[in-house]
Amino acid sequence: MIKKIKTSDLKVGMYIHDLNSSWMEHSFISNQFKIKADKDIKKMHSHGIKSVYIDTQKGLDFKHAPTAADTLMDVHKKAINVAGIEKPISKQTRVGEEIQQARSIYKAATKAMNNIMTDARLGKQVQVELVQPIAEQMIESAFRNKDALISLSRIKSKDEYTFMHSVSVAGLMVSFGRAMDMDKKVIHEIAVGGLLHDIGKMSIPLEILNKPGKHTPSEWEIMKSHVVHSREILKQTPGISQQALDVGALHHERYDGSGYPDGLKHDQISEIGQMSAIVDVYDALTSIRVYKDAWEPTITLKKMLEWSPHHFNPELIQRYIRSLGIYPIGTLVELESGLVGVVIEQGEGSLLQPMLRIFYNAKKTSYVKIREMDLTRETSDRILNAVSPSKYGIDLSIFY
Fold first, then answer.
1. Residue 29 region by backbone torsions, left for phi larger than 0, else alpha for psi between -120 and 50, else beta
2. What is the CB-side half-sphere exposure of residue 95 using CA atoms within 13 A?
3. Where are the alpha helices (DSSP H) in 1-129?
4. What confidence tens digit (pLDDT) does each residue in 46-90 have?
């Protein structure tokens, strides 16, 4: 049986089924292993891991602990409640009308970031004026229809992850900032910060930065230093605001003080810094890498909600879920009727009833004529669960 227990309750002889933490937060080679010594437990504590899932069939049991199924159900109910209390932000255009414009912005932004980061690796000064127009275009797109930018954040090449991640973080920060009712000038600055937040990675040796697997403990320490490099580079960059600097300097700090580089916690981390931590983790987890598969958006949001008392500000993570919807754009969902579709836009009346593009009938195991379905109007059907595109062997990019 799989159970969730506090790290403080771990004993030698227990079997770790899941570290219940993002791969970004620790240097363990595997997520599953048997605890052989107290040093294993101490290492988990040092990485800020507050709870884990154990397999009682492979190791010692802990009686007074909820099962994984119970925990999952509790988190699911909480996520549904969070998403259900807020209506979607109104849009000036349909996502289909905005997607081409957003795609052009992403393409130009990725090219610009490639050039900027290449120059940074050569020791050249960052020219912030190169990203200012991109930040402004992102804001204009998000205010017309935020779903377009969000949908494109999922489409990345494994080979260009570093550049595309920066672009995605910027786009997601813009959408988050809009949902937080931030001033447009502030949203502009956090977009700039998102584009440049990982500039310090250009100071990391390529063999470590591009390693196709988990880093060793020593390599992990070198990787973590990219935040300090980002902070120093941005401080020396003319035209960088404090808001933009906060995104680069604070995106790996955690609400409970378990982050890096400074171990800041709670109000020691600015609101923008706390927002950037949420966005950075979300985009990293939902991206495919050479050494890991992408998590589905709905699963990612639920896990982040579960981690929120420790790693993230609980109020902000709930605001973030409301900004995306519990079924973000690009999520593949199965309906009670057996129909399968991709979320292409948030519904007009409820975040729990998005607009879908239907293409398959699971009960009949056959493809159907592609059509759009608005769940706010199709009241006889509802979402059963979110699933991986691999289950149906489809490439989500064909829908954008």
1. alpha
2. 23
3. 38-46, 68-84, 95-121
4. 888 888 999 999 999 988 888 877 777 777 677 767 665 555 555
Residues 6+ apart with CB under 8 A from 123: none
Q: Are 326 and 352 in contact (CB under 8 A)?
A: yes
Spell out the alpha helix ranges (H) of 15-94: 38-46, 68-84
Q: Where are the beta strands (DSSP E) in the chain?
A: 2-6, 15-18, 33-34, 51-55, 332-335, 339-345, 355-361, 366-374, 383-387
Lookup: tokens for 172: 């997601």
Cβ atoms 375, 354 nearer than 8 A: yes
Question: At the topology level of CATH, where does 95-324 sit?
Answer: Hypothetical protein af1432 (1.10.3210)
Is residue 297 within 8 A of residue 281, CB to CB? The reply is: no
Residue 27 near residue 217 (C-beta atoms within 8 A): yes
Bridge partners, residue 54, by sequence: 3, 16
Extents of the domains making up the chain: 2-66, 95-324, 332-399
- Write the pLDDT tens digit of every residue in 92-125: 667 777 888 888 998 899 899 999 999 999 999 9
Helix, strand counts (H, E) of the chain: 13, 9
Contacts of 142 (CB under 8 A, 6+ apart): 149, 171, 174, 175, 178
356 within 8 A of 344, measured Cβ to Cβ: yes
- pLDDT tens column, 214-272: 788 899 999 999 999 999 999 999 999 999 999 999 999 999 999 999 999 999 999 99
HSE of 131, CA atoms in CB hemisphere, 13 A: 30
**Separation between Cα atoms, residue 243 and residue 191, nearest integer Å:** 9
Which candidate, 320, 283, 298, 301, places its Cα nearest to that of 385? Answer: 298
C-alpha span between 90 and 122 (Å, rounded): 44
Q: What are phi and psi of 344, to 5 degrees?
A: -110, -15
